[in-house]
Amino acid sequence: MYQKSKGLEERPSYPVHLVKLPSTSKLLKHGRIAGSVKSQNHAVSSWLPAQYTGYCQAVAEYIRYLLGVTDVQPTWPPSPTTAEISHLPEHPDDAITNDKTVFNSNIFSPATQRWVRGRAQDIAKMARNPNMRQTRRKSDRKRTLFEYRKSTIKQHLGEHALLYLPNVDCCSDTEDDEDGNVIVVDSLWREERYREFLHTVDKLSIHYAKETQGARSAAQRLDSRRQPSTRVDERAAVAPNLPKQCYREEFYSNLRQTERYLITVEGGSESLESLLAKARALSK
Questions:
Q1: 149-187 per-residue burial string, b: 16 or more CB within 10 A, e: under 16
Q2: Helix 192-213 to helix 132-152 angle, to the nearest 10 degrees?
Q3: Per DSSP, what are the bridge partners of residue 2?
Q4: Tens digits of residue pLDDT in 81-122
Q5: Disulfide-capable partner of 168 in 39, 146, 205, 277 (CB 3.0 to 4.6 Å)?
Q6: Which domain of life is it from (predicted)?
């Protein structure tokens, strides 16, 4: 995001007038945007599309293609049928190759630079920690699952039901087996009814994803590809701020009184059993 020449100060390569930050922001240091990758990305987040949007994913795939990177294999949609092709307007080749309107936006260059900057940081981290990619993938999957569930609960069960999903550690990890299958790694602390509630929310997410995005797109989602657990992680992070009924009794009874007080909260306006019944009905 920054360009630096010998003897010159660092200066932003994106349109500065688009960056709007309060004067008290910690991202501003000595009148300039902070130099860390996280800070720079945050500075442009209000006007640059999120990195997971289709536009930015297309930019990333295009850069990989130019660099000859083939380890990321996207799933391409099926080829159009003859009938679909017949409905396309006819344009001469020159009209297509001379169309430069896509490059007139101020978005393409910053999006490209953000991607390159992130990959450069990944390379530096990999040099220090060879297991960084595996750790990050596990963390990203957990975050993705959390966002899916959070969105579904809020939309279909009501915002009050988010009491049962206070943070990302409510979600279990995901790992790949030798055959490339995506397997759930269950958490020791979760009570069976609470685990069932979360998995029912997954079914509800997939159900509505099929209706709104199509079966093909829904099948590619992480929550759709996860297979039943084959092992339990006894050292999985314990999510705090949940009602007592969400914790397995054997786990909860072994906690000190202070620990019990710190991790639990009072039940909400609707019980877990009631929300589970609603999720089951909606996912059918």
A1: bbebbeebbeeebebbbeebbbbbbbbeeeeeeebbbbb
A2: 80
A3: 12
A4: 787 777 777 777 777 677 665 565 677 777 888 888 888 887
A5: 146
A6: Eukaryota
